């Protein structure tokens, strides 16, 4: 992993070793390398193959309106608070292929807030960011996404948000006009704005404790006072160094409100 940091600037040393080893072994086997030395040589000397490596070892599991109860809480409790701001900035950290960002745009549109919002979607993987920018997803997923949408409190016809063409669904470009997608490495990059809501769901579980602390500090420094931080259902601020500055906003969902800045 030190080779990759020296050659490409990607630092995977504090990623969960179990998850990382499993994914590296899978790629090694999949691409039929005769030895680990050859695998290592290819990574160091072939930037195109390194892009494949990043694509394979970063976790890109996502779906629109995943965990509908979470989005129902956003609709009922978080968006009414954000509505009081003159302009709303939301960051989806580790957004993968962008389904979560489009989910948020749909909620904002239905709340009448999309016109005064800007959604940032970032990920370490440039390939998934390109797919997110396209707003094109498999049409085979739309039935599942429509079900999530209804369970999250949606009342529209979900198919009105996209145009289906054979096996692909292209989402409304009016949603994408309020999105900015870019690569960002949570392990090494800095804060780039101040947000009222940050979502970093199911990302920290793939990091070792030291990197979790570093990322939480980054998210904290990027969040306005009284802003909201949302994590995945297996993640928590409990026992973290920033825990005393946050209060869990909802008893069931993993959403915290920043109530105290460092003085």
Low-confidence stretches: none
CATH class value of the largest domain: Alpha Beta
N-to-C terminal Cα separation, in Å? 38 Å
By oligomeric state, this entry counts as single chain
Q: How many strands, what sense, and barrel or not for the largest sheet?
A: 7 strands, mixed
By secondary-structure content and strand pairing, the structural class works out as alpha/beta
Order of helices and strands: HHHHHEHEHEHEEHEEHEEE
Radius of gyration of CA atoms, rounded to a whole number: 19 Å
Overall number of domains = 2
Second rung of CATH, namely the architecture of the largest domain: 3-Layer(aba) Sandwich
- The CATH topology annotation of the largest domain reads as Rossmann fold
What name goes with the CATH superfamily of the largest domain?
Vaccinia Virus protein VP39
Strand order of the largest sheet: 6-2-1-7-8-10-9
Return the average pLDDT rounded to an integer.
90
Q: Give the helix tally.
A: 10
The count of strands amounts to 10
**How much of the residues is beta strand, in percent?**
15-25%
Broad shape: globular
Helix content: 25-40%
